[in-house]
Amino acid sequence: MDLQLDGRVALVTGSSKGIGEAVAKGLALEGVIVVVHGRDRTQAERVEQQIIASGGRAHIVTGDLTVDEAVHALVTDARAFAGRIDIVVNNAGGSGGGEDWRITSPGSWASAYDRNVLAAVRVTTALLPQMRSAKWGRIINISSLAGMMPPAANPAYSAAKAAMIAMTASLAKAVAAEGVTVNTVSPGTVHSAKLDMKFRETAAERGIARDAPWEEVERAVLPLFAQVPAGRVGTLEEIADAICFLASPRAAYITGSNIRLDGGMLPTA
User: Fold this and answer.
1) Is 113 an annotated catalytic residue?
2) Catalytic member of 85, 157, 203, 239
């Protein structure tokens, strides 16, 4: 399927590693000019160079998305390079640690909200006027299954991700008639570098070699972490594929949606 994305320009926040990196590379393969963002310039340059080496087009911007001035600077830099931004993927954020209800504090909730929700608001509001004027734009917010099925740990993170889902629904209604779509993608258990390390540590405790094939590790360890009906974790490429479709003209009638990529984990009834 031709996603008709060649020549479009995307800013992917937090794309120097993990989900964001996979999304940046996936969009580049579809012909999108990608603005790679991160706070670590060396990491961002690595992603940029890999995209260019694969025949894609990329540029890097750096900056802390919790600082208004830094967001203004990186958006100005991105526009100086590309002239416009058609697609924004608000991926930057994160849990910020393993806090639980015994030690949680209002300050940690404010910080989680700032890193996840307000970071997305800063970037979106900076880019939205141009999208509305052009009558075309794609805004994709990365939430988490934790926003709908929160565990006992990391309550601030779950609450922030839930807020991103509500934010998406509100903005989608506000701009639906102007050619701009706004959607959320909510991954469940995904094969990231961090998850791989944790699974292999747990497998080693059960007598499985750390360098065992991933399928063996996954089969032994996944049931201890999550009950996934699909019987496996998701891949970064699967998340990237979903986002590429939502970013495309072919998804023009999808807006205000929250696309779960969780292998069936969330109960539907």
Assistant:
1) no
2) 157
Beta-sheet pairing, 180-187 with 258-261: parallel
Can you give the pLDDT at residue 149?
93
Amino acid 175 reads: V
Overall pTM > 0.90: yes
Q: Which residues of the chain have pLDDT under 50?
A: none
**In the prediction, which pLDDT does 268 show?**
64
Domains of the chain: 9-189+235-261 (3.40.50.720), 191-233 (no CATH)
pLDDT for residue 1: 84
pLDDT value at position 40?
92
pLDDT at 94: 84
Half-sphere exposure of 117 toward its Cβ, with a 13 Å CA cutoff? 20
